[in-house]
Amino acid sequence: MTSADARAQLRELCYLRPADAATLGRELGGAGGPLAAEGWLHVALAEVRSGPTDQSDEALERARRGFEARGDRTGLAWCDEVRAIALRRRGDYSASAQLQTQLDERSGIEREPLYRFVAHNSRAITHKLNGQCDDALRHFYAAHEAAAESGLDGPRITALGNLGGFHQDLFNLDDAHRLSEEALAAARRCGLRQVVTVAGANLVFVRHAMGDAAGARAMAGFLLDHPEETLPDLERTFPLPLALGHLASGEVETALRFLSAGAVAGIADGDGQCDWAWIKARCLLAQGNAWGARELIEHTLKQRAERQLAERPYPSMQMRQALAEACEHLGDHRAALGWQREAHDLYVHLVGRSARARFIALEVSHQLASTQRERDRAVMDHRAVEDDRRRLVELNAALQSKITETEQLHQALREQALHDPLTGLHNRRYLYEAGPGLLELAHRQQRIACVALLDLDHFKLLNDTYGHQAGDQVLRRFATLLKQTMRRSDILCRYGGEEFVAVMPEIDADGAQAVLARLLEALQTLPPEPGRRRVPNGSFSAGIAVFPRHGNTLEKLLHRADKALYTAKHQGRARIEQVPATGFGTLA
């Protein structure tokens, strides 16, 4: 084998079959000669990615000595890239990021596509672990571009899998699904069992989050039905996607068997603990064991709080939704409402992450940076002045067009993130953005305002009796009636579940109560929708708090309106209660 053939084979194998790359690297390193240092480098790269954190040290030191002996600055940069990966795997994220910054500033390095892929992929993971999501996503896309330029299957498939997995973390489910499907198909063609398994596992969670229960079950079935393409001992090492896929299709006992077969101790310190807890709680709820589900989630949350473990938003939201449902079944409605509110807050956060991820993805796809570089090259080019001026005008116009288009999409995504998709009303996030400003205006003008909290009565019973589609129909009709009855100056929001909030400027408590009484009467006498299944109109209960008498912040007013709402519920529902005049003092 010639030196050129050996080098090409190392590059082809390093991300396709790392164990084979390490074997070839040891042969080249042991034989000495011009490829010895490169051989030891690939041994270190393979070991640092898959073995114990200190396993690569010896091979890396041999590679470094070889590159130093011949003054190879690019080879030494490769060694430092591998060392940065080792630092990150040992948990020293700060030192890894610092070394990567120094490498980016180093001159005299040949940054060919494979080097750029490794560098960008490593920086993306470091930024991700440091919580710098925007930088991480941009580096993942840069790694994907470099991998495509390299023409090597291993980097290309790895880049696809990493991008899909990170978009899943950011709740950008459409891109996560598309990229993970591409990674799965490419990995199957190349026989990459680890990528096939991981991409398939990610797709179970993505399809479940998208509401595609059948798709989640089908992907879990694929993993089980193709042992020749997936990692061995799948039921023990990947119990969570298998359990979730079967739970999605109602196979509760099978899901529980997978959860029991998995190595629970192996995930106790990581994010897998949260996924395990909410999937197990959903199984228990499906069996009617609401108490067991509540106890499991509360124990998990307490344990993670005591150990100060960070939580990913999506499994955290799922845990709180399961806990809210368990509390509801047990009759603890106040606790259920509190947990449901926390789950909704996490959902709003996830929607914001998703919108930001889609914005960055669009920015990359439009190649704003590439357009900028092209414009800069035109400035420095030594062509005729008139040609330069004409080209600059064209490039500036193209750049401005792309920027405007991207800004418009970003604004549209933000508007989407501030509205409830079911009812079309503003959501909780908008309430906390716009409500304080309205109250501040009332304070400056020395005017009063009311905050009303409305809750549809017996909504869970309606869902259980007529189904969730009927429940959605009632929510949409009530939202329409709310917009028709209330004033255009009022802020109307779906606060979560069957709960709504109205912030009403320049109106006193009696006036607000009169408006809500008309709304209640209109809801109770609403005629059935033509051509639809007849569903009871129902009623609502409401609590009213007055600014500034009952509080000078939105949070305080909502808290006191909630107490009045609780009184209305307690006194028989279909009522509107004001905060008692003697219940609270005036706040300055």
Describe the protein's architecture and organization.
The structure is a single chain. The protein has 588 residues and is mainly α. It contains 26 helices and five strands. A five-stranded mixed sheet has the order 2-3-1-4-5, sandwiched between helices. Helix 26 links the parallel strand 4 (540-547) and strand 5. Helix 11 (193-209) runs parallel beside helix 14 (239-248) and helix 24 (468-485) crosses helix 25 (509-524). The longest helix has 33 residues, at 333-365. The protein is elongated. The termini are far apart. The relative contact order is 0.04.
Task: Describe the structure concisely for a colleague.
With 588 residues, the protein is mostly helical.
Topology:
Elements (H helix, E strand, L loop, with lengths): L2 H11 L4 H14 L4 H15 L6 H13 L3 H17 L3 H13 L7 H17 L3 H18 L2 H17 L3 H18 L2 H17 L3 H13 L8 H4 L1 H10 L3 H10 L10 H15 L3 H17 L6 H17 L3 H33 L2 H13 L4 H33 L10 H17 L4 E8 L2 H8 L1 H18 L5 E6 L2 E7 L3 H16 L15 E8 L6 H17 L5 E3 L10
Parallel strand pairs: 4-5
Antiparallel strand pairs: 1-3, 1-4, 2-3
Helix pairs in contact: 1-2, 2-3, 3-4, 3-5, 4-5, 5-6, 5-7, 6-7, 7-8, 8-9, 8-19, 9-10, 9-11, 10-11, 11-12, 11-14, 12-14, 14-15, 14-16, 15-16, 16-17, 16-18, 17-18, 18-19, 19-21, 20-21, 23-24, 24-25
